[in-house]
Structure formats: C-alpha cells, structure tokens
From TrEMBL:
Biological processes, Gene Ontology terms: rhamnose catabolic process
Family under the similarity heading: Belongs to the FGGY kinase family.
Designated name of the protein: Rhamnulokinase
Source species: Dactylosporangium aurantiacum
Single GO molecular function: rhamnulokinase activity
CDD domains for this protein: ASKHA_NBD_FGGY_RhaB-like (cd07771)
Amino acid sequence: MPDYLAVDLGAESGRVLRGALRDDLLTVTEVHRFVNRPVALPEGLHWDALALFADLSDGIAAAVAGGSEPVAGVGIDAWGNDFGLLDRAGHLIGNPWHYRDRRTTRSTAVVAARVGAQALYRTTGTPPLPINTASQLVAMEGSPQLDVAERLAMLPDLFGYWLTGDLATEQTIASTSQLLDVTSRTWATGVIDRLGIPRRLFAGGVVPAGTKVGPLLAHPSVPLWTVAGHDTAAAVAAVPATGDGFGYISSGTWSLVGLEIDAPVLTDEARLAGFSNEAGVDGTIRFLRNGTGLWLLQRCRAAWGDPPYADLVDEAAAAPGFRSLVDPDDPAFVAPRDMPARLAAACRASGQPTPQGRGAVVRCVLDSLACKHRWTLERAEALAGRRVDTVHVVGGGAANPLLCQLTADLTGRPVLAGPVEATAVGNLLVQARADGRLGTLRDLRAVVARSLPPRRFEPAGGARHDDAYARFLALLDAGETI
Ligand code: LRH
C-alpha cells in the first residue's frame, strides 16, 4: 500500500508529513519541519516564498527517498488569502505579500463602495476583511506589477505550480479571495470587473479538491493532487464527527468557529456579524467567522523569550479565572509586538485589573478566547437556524486542555478535542480518496475518529461562567469591535 505526503504550511512553520492508510487506519509521521519567517522590507511585510519552496522541496525529497513504501501523491495546504502574481512567461513577479501588511487598511471600504456591500456578500459570501485577496489587489492598484501580471496563483497553487509546471486553482483556497462566486464556485467576473482587477489573472478556472495536477518535476513517479488547499478546509474535512449536529473550532493562530452547511447564508445579518461562507470539500459550505486565536498567546510567548507552551498553560490553570477579559478581535492586537503590554492596556482602558505575571496574562487570553468562541458559535447557530450538540476543536488549540475545558464551560456543549494535526490529516485523506481508497466525507471522518480518537471535555456549567460571559458581552457592546 502506498503512502501520501502532506505539505502543510502555517503562518509560523511548515511541515511535510507522511500518511499511511492501512485497514482504514491512518498513521501520520512528520518528515520535515521548517520555520516560516516573514520578511519586513521598507515597502511592507512579505512571505519568503523561495525559502518556503526550498524547504518543502527538501522535505518531499527526503520523504520520497526514505520510508518503506512508495509515495502515491503529494498535496499542499496553506493559510488563505495570499497569492503570487505570474508574468506572461510564468515567472513570479515580486514577493508575495503577507496578509498582515497594513497596506489594506482602507481597501475594504473601497471594495464595498465599488461593488456594493450587499451585492458583494450575496455573490461571494465573504464579508469585507482587510486580509481578503480582493482587498489586497485593490491596494495594489497602480502598481507596475499588476500591469505585467498575467495570472494569479493562490499560495498553495503557486507552490504546486513550481513543483509540477502546471497551475491548477483549487476551490477551497480560491474561496478565501472574495472573488469566487459562492454558488457556482467559478470566478465572480462581475465583481472582478467592478473592482477594476484585470480579468486575465483568473483565466484558468477553478478545480475541486482531489484533482490530479501532474507529476512532480523532481520525482516523475509521484503526482500532485489538489487537496483542500485552504488549511481550514482541510482541517474541517478531518473533524472526527460521527453525525451532522456538530460545530467546529479550527484553533491555531486564528480561531475559525462555525458550522458545516449545505447552502450559503447570505443575509445582511450574517454579513454584519462578519461570517464567511467558504467552500468546503464535496460542495459543503464552511459557515464560519475568522477570529483572532492563539496569536495572542504566540505573541506573548515570543515577548517572554519562548518558554514552553505547557508551562504557560500550567501557570494559567493556577491563576484565578475570569478576572479580566478582552475582545480578542480588538484591532489593538493585530500587530505582533509587545502583546502583554497591549493586553494590559486594553484591560486598563475597560476598567479591569491589569493581569500581573505570565499566568494571569495567559489566563486572560484563554478566558477571552473561550468567551469569543461562545459568542461566535451562538451567532452561527442563530444565523444558520441550527443548534449543535457538540463542538469539535481541531488544530493546535486541541493540545491546550485549559482552552478546551473553558470552551466547553462557556459554550455549555461537550468539546471533542483533536486531531492537533487536522490540516495534514485532511490533506492526506483527500488524496487517499481521490486515489480511490475512500468513499464519502463521512467515511473519511470515520477514519479520523478511529485513527486519532478525540479527547472529550464535559461542560462544568454554573453561574460563574454566565457572569463572566455577561461581562464579556458588555465589553463587546462598549468596544463595538466585532
Ligand atoms: C488559518 C487561515 C484562515 C484565514 C487566515 C489568513 O490558517 O487560513 O482561515 O484565511 O489563515
């Protein structure tokens, strides 16, 4: 039985993982891990696409050479929104921008003004966010790079193009652009025209997850498959749910909280609450909200000299709960530096005690994330008209027992935590299925539940959590930062 390789690119690190599917059990081993170091140039913040490509290529070469079984496929997933532009010779023009670069602060208003906020949402299902590809392209207006650009490649597709020489644009990653029609899953040419973005950039069309792209140039016996190129879509595909009544939190740098539904919710309420209808595998819709997640903890940890996460979580568990709360989506927390000081300033500004010491700061972050998880889950349920009985937490946050317990306590639903490697697992299983080895999405999830059984956290309930949540709601009302 052959193995598959997942290239999984995250904002902090990238990995190449090997997946072996034997008797409907998946085992995943990490082959290669590398740092992802954004580069700040005078003009702004970029990804180092060449370093990422060199690292992922090294990982693939090591995996193909090692291992007892042949490799039957490679798939690439990455964060959403970002892209490279190719010239008419197919060469990359400039360095891909980082979605955190500040050049897009005014773009969302421009995008909405040109298309109309309602019409834009009804067509694309995406609310205005500065990180959207649409916002980024509008911010590039007048750039000579756009004059010579012939094609746009979302980042996982760009790396796939470099691996094979063939550019395939995959649906789930394209749906993070705010330029894909949510209903037809083809490029929204009307929106593209109104935004003044050259239509030729989108000439190639869009293919679903599980499409064979072509053989790798460096390893001709190994094909590249499109997987769910958007990491969140790959993670949602790997939620080990056994029924339909579940909500999910893909918990990493971001907290993506939402539901899987069959048809998009395109109401004004959903738009104003900031919900996206992103494409999932098999025509599903990921109705979710992009919220700030463990980014707050990652940046605190960096400010403290990178102590182990486990130490920080232990210290937070020992600190008193719900003393001070912040809205994780407060724009004050977007920039990476001085996070503990920014959190303290937000607590002071809202008349709460400033957290003293690492444990108290981390506790403030985790309590606040759990409150925002509840807020988002309840909004998703109300907007989609559906109540969930279980919340699956997948991704890095599933390894944080305090965050999982607090999320169970606040939402009042059992939390099923794991797999931590959900993005890679989704990536691998989409390939195995495209290769004819699995059936429906439900079958795929059953493999995950059997191979990597989730850990269960029961909600504790109690007035303490409701009081804390009432204070959190008051904070949101005062800040209006949703
Ligand atoms: C999570 C994620 C998220 C957003 C953001 C930029 O890693 O993909 O869904 O698109 O990164």
